[in-house]
Amino acid sequence: MITVSSLKHSAKSEDSYAYDNETLYVRLRTLRGEVDKVILWIGDPYNWAEGGLDGGNMAGTEAFGWIGGNEIEMEQEAVTEFHDHWFAVFKPQKRRCRYGFILFGKEGEKFLFGEKRCVDISSPECEERELSRLNNFFCFPYLNKIDVLNTPSWVKNTVWYQIFPDRFCNGRPEISPEGVEPWGSTPTSFNFMGGDLWGVIDKLDGNAANLLI
């Protein structure tokens, strides 16, 4: 049986984000060893069959008739001690989408995992109804350019090193202010050790980093 409490996904988070201006990355977590396959059911929220939509209310409980779903088989990208991690890529034609996850359990179960509930869709009738019912699907409203992380190219070749000057090295003890602790004593949250920029400069030759914070 699929352990529903172990299913994890949040829209517009590290689980669902814009990789570039056209591409959505989607991730899902399940309990380790319980799920054989995951299908991402995803598509444009405004693609409806004639007569659907519950009078125009997409979130209505009777809003059946959504036909925008596409099936994308998710890749199992990692297995950790307690969980399996699944991944898929989707390019929404109009940069917006609704989606859910179809889970195939190792014991023959078939569930739809949505934003509001997890539904057994083993029967064809239930599957047809739930896959056309938009109010249970996660929402990614729009792929905005401003939301895309653009990392500068130089970052990839950077070795970062963070320094707290006061605790790093006291390069010029003669300019230390009054009240500093003797170098090598135990630091606390409130004392000062007298480290300075001269101490940082003196140690640069032995530091393999090329970016200091």
TrEMBL record:
GO terms under biological process: carbohydrate metabolic process
EC numbers, comma separated: 3.2.1.135
Highest taxon listed in the record's lineage: Bacteria
All residue ranges annotated as the Glycoside hydrolase family 13 N-terminal Ig-like domain in the record: 4-144
Molecular function terms, GO-annotated: neopullulanase activity
Entry annotated with the keyword Iron: no
Keywords linked to the UniProt accession: Glycosidase, Hydrolase
InterPro entries given in the database record: GH, Glyco_hydro_13_lg-like_dom, Ig-like_fold, Ig_E-set
Coiled coil: none
UniProt name for this protein: Neopullulanase
UniProt source species: Shigella boydii
